[in-house]
Each structure stands twice: as structure tokens, then as C-alpha cells.
Amino acid sequence: MSEVEGSSEVTASGGPATPRIAIDDLTKYYGQTLVLDEVFLDVAEHEVVCLIGASGSGKSTLLRCINQLVPFDHGEIRLDGVAIDDPSFGRTGLRKRIGIVFQAYNLFPHMHVLDNVTLAPRKVHGVDKREAEARAYELLGLLDMDGFALQYPEQLSGGQQQRVAIVRALATNPDVLLLDEVTAALDPELIGGVLEVIRDLKSQGMTMIIVTHEMGFARDVADRVCFLEDGRILEESPPDQLFSDPQHPSTRRFLQRIIEAGRL
Amino acid sequence: MSSERAASAEPARRAGPRPPVKATLTPRERYLPLTISVVSTVVVFGFAWRVITSAENWPLIQRQFFNVEAMRASLPQVFSGFLVNMTVWVLALVVIAVLGIVIAVFRSLTGPWAAPLRVFAVVYIDLLRGTPSILLVLLFGLGVPALQIPGLTSSRLFWGSVALVLGYTAYTSEVYRSGIEAVPDGQRAAAKALGLTQWQTLRYSILPQAVRNVIPALLNLAVALQKDVALLSVIGAREAVREAQIFTARTFNFSSYIVATVLFLLATIPMARLTDWVTRRDQERRLQRTL
């Protein structure tokens, strides 16, 4: 994949690098239910952070807050030091720079692959058709999907659909990619191909925040793993440490259950 | 067991049981059920026909309703009326299909600024769907021309058709709305995440899927409208039913109504078959998707 667009490793003043994504004191309620409870998280450029935890621990909600799919009640999220609700992003600026891939792919079923991928570049970002399609073919080619450009999502396997969804999210050259349990809906034999794509993205320097239940994969690909419970990040450390020597009792219990289920 | 034995005679392509050998039917097995079906049907209906036509009043009924002479005499008049029905039907369908989407979109818009449009849609649907079609036809078809507003046509046919369009638009928009609501939430999330505006989301993602979801239901409404155009006869529009009425009033023979009936059936039955076919294809498509 192409290198990410120019960004400031170092602030203008020459101080320490600004994190790509900075989450400060994030709190969110669904109605009366607290789903995110004073979450702090910094993600540096090129860093891959995995969020793990039981269902309902707030992982997906955290991802959805980052690209403003859901509003939050308190705290701040910054992209390269700028709050994500800052007017300087305009209506579509944030969408261009943060891509998301969903568990259920959410491809548009009535459009073929090429239209799925080029819709946002053409209609939202004003890229002309030929250029958008050339870029789409390039990305599809990198994921071995260029032969399927004119097929419809329902003609593809789950793994192929998920790869198209990843291409769709990459089509605007985002700086950050959010992956929300992207292999959870896949048959076991299809998971590997999608994980391979994510490893490739990491090797090309993509900044990613990944919600996953694939512990082996998290251990392998993450620079840092965060364990969430009840909307809080209880433990945050490099994968080797978190998986082999978890500090928090809740993390230990969670990993124990995972091991018993044979998933690690 | 027997299939295994049969398989051993041929070169075995795979181990284990072979597919069952296709049974060859004897002519008796093949044609007897069909023959029974045809004969029994002919006998039952033939008997019923005999009973009806041997009734004491049958000649009277035949003369009044199935009089070939009267039918032939009324056909040109009734048929030209029927062309009016079909013209109104086709034009109304086009307008309804568009207006229905507009009202449905109004109703499904979110945000405080869209409140007037939402309220308009809700009130419109409640009022128009809750009023009998014949009342709408009378109100518009007789009422508006009676106002004699300069610049507005005073054609009863036109205003009666407007009444039908407005009434059916209310039903149609509810059908569209059900289709819009049936589109999974993930589609909206995906569109939003890609930066599409609310309008672009509707235009490129939601509406194409919604319309496809409800085509069978829309065709059903189209068949219903095909018949309801006949309501225009109550305001004196010279469509098929009105023409048949005029003929009957002149000749005291009801065969012209039968002519109108046959013309309507010739139009509605193919439409109903088309609807069945589209519905079946739609169900197969959904089934395939869930497999």
C-alpha cells in the first residue's frame, strides 16, 4: 500500500511527537448505562493497538467514538493534536483520514466491488472517476481482489467481502484504520487471509486500532494491547507481557477463560 | 440395497452408494394421473354448466348479460372508455411512484430542521390514507372544478385523477418507508463512516435497496389502482364503467358491464401474474442470500 500522507512526527516547536490519536478522559453513556468510563489512550504514528475484552466491555463503542459514528458525553479525542470535532476538519475531513472496517462488512449489496470502493472518493472527495478507479484497481490488486471488481458482494465469500471492505476503507488514503472485529463473522478457514492483509498493512506502517477476539493474532501484530472491562482500560502493555504475565486479576480471569475455550 | 447392486454392473466412479437410478415410468404411470385430472374437471364443470343453463331463468340472464349483439354494439364505446382508464392508470403510476418516495423520504429524515417535512408527511399520510377513495374523488373531481379558479383546469377527469394520485401516494409512501426501515443499520453506519451526507446516504445506499425490497408490494398497489380508476365514473368521467353505464341506461341491457369486466380482467390478470412472478423471484433472491 502507498505510504501514508505527510504528517508531523515532531511538532513545529521541535517538542516530543504528537500522538496520531489521543484519547483523553473519554466517557460515554448509552441512556443511563455507562459504556466508556474515563478512558485515556494515545496511539503513535505507525503503531498498532489491539483492544481486547469481553462483549459489552466498550471496545467497539470506543472505536466508533474515534471516527464520530457515535457521540460521547465527556472528554476529548484528538487526531494529530486537533480535536475531532474541530471545524477545521470540515464535514468530511475526518472521514477521509480515519477509515473503519466493520464486523459485518457492510458493503453496499446493490453495487459491484468497484463502485463500493470508489463511491466515497468520487462522491465525497471529488476524485474523478478514472483516477478513483485506477486507485481502486491498484488497492484491489494488492489484496488479490482485482479479478472481482465487477462482481457483487453476494457473489463473494465472507473473507473476500471483508477484503473489499478493507479496500473501501483504504480508498481515501486514511492515516488511521479502525478494525472492528473484522474476522468475527468469518468461517475459520477464511480468517487467515484477512489477518494476512492486516499484517501487510502493519508492515507498510499503517496506524491501526484493532478490536479483536483473535488473541494469537493480537499477540502477533500488536505493539500494545489494551484490556477493557466495564468501559475502562484496566491493563495496557506490550503483547508479550500482557499475555504471559497479566497484572490485573480481571485480565488473568479473561485470559484464563480464553485459554479454556482453546482460543489462545 | 438395489441401487448398490445396479451400481456394480457399471464401472464404479466412487465407492459407496450410488445415486438412485432414475425410474422409467410406464405409459400407464405417466398418463393416467393427467387423464384423471382432465376428465374429472371436465365432468364437474360440465355438470355445473348444465345445471345453470337448464335453469328456468337462464335465457333471461343470457339475454340481459351475455347478449352477443349488445356486447358487439357496446364494445367500441366501452373500449374507448377503457383507453381512458389505462391512460390515467399509467400516468398516475408514474406520479405516485415519485411522490411516494418524496413523502417517504420526508418521513424518514432526522434532525430538528427536517421537523416540518416530517410533520407534513405524517399528517398527509394520516389524512389521505384514512379517507375513502370515493370521497376523495368526489371532493376533488366535483369540488375543485366548482370553484372555477381562473388558471386551473376544470376537467373533472383531471381532478378526479389527482384525487386518486394523492390517495395512492399515501399508501405507496408507507410501502416505501417499510422498505427504507428494512435496510440494515450497518448500511447507514458504513455510509456515514465514508463521509456521505444524509442525502447521499439515501440516494446511493438506502433508497436503491429499499425500492428493491418493496417492488412486489408496489406492484400489488398498481393492480389495485388499475381497478380503482373506475371510481372516476362517479364524477361522470367517460371511462369504461361510465360508458358501460350509459349503454345500459339506453338499452336496458347489462352486457356492456360484462364487456367492461372482461376488459378489466384482461388488464389485471397479467399484472397479477407478473406480481406473483416478481414476488417469487424476490423470495428466491432473499433465500439465496441467507443460505
Helix content of chain A: 25-40%
> How helix-rich are the residues of chain B, as a percent range?
over 70%
Major sheet attributes of chain A: 6 strands, mixed
Mean pLDDT of chain A: 89
* SSE order of chain A, one letter for each helix or strand: EEEHEEHEHHHEHEHEEHH
Count the helices of chain A. How many?
9
Mean pLDDT of chain B: 88
Low-pLDDT ranges of chain A: 1-14
Describe the oligomeric state of these chains in a short phrase: heterodimer
Q: Helix and strand succession of chain B?
A: HHHHHHHHHHH
Radius of gyration of chain B: 28 Å
Low-confidence stretches of chain B: 1-8
Strand content of chain B: under 5%
Chain pair with largest interface: A-B, 25 and 19 residues
Portion of residues in beta strands of chain A equals 15-25%
Tell me the domain tally of chain B: 2
Structural classification of chain B = mainly alpha
Tell me, briefly, the overall form of chain B: flat
- CATH level-3 fold name of the largest domain in chain B: MetI-like fold
Write the layout of secondary structure elements.
The complex is a heterodimer of chains A (264) and B (291).
Chain A: E1 21-30, E2 33-43, E3 48-52, H1 59-66, E4 74-79, E5 82-83, H2 93-97, E6 98-101, H3 113-124, H4 129-142, H5 158-170, E7 176-180, H6 188-203, E8 207-211, H7 215-221, E9 224-229, E10 232-237, H8 239-244, H9 249-260
Parallel strand pairs in A: 3-8, 3-9, 6-7, 7-8
Antiparallel strand pairs in A: 1-2, 1-4, 4-5, 9-10
Helix pairs in contact in A: 3-4, 3-5, 5-6
Chain B: H1 2-9, H2 27-53, H3 58-65, H4 68-108, H5 115-130, H6 133-147, H7 156-182, H8 185-193, H9 198-228, H10 240-251, H11 255-290
Helix pairs in contact in B: 4-5, 4-7, 4-9, 4-10, 4-11, 5-7, 6-7, 7-9, 8-9, 9-11, 10-11
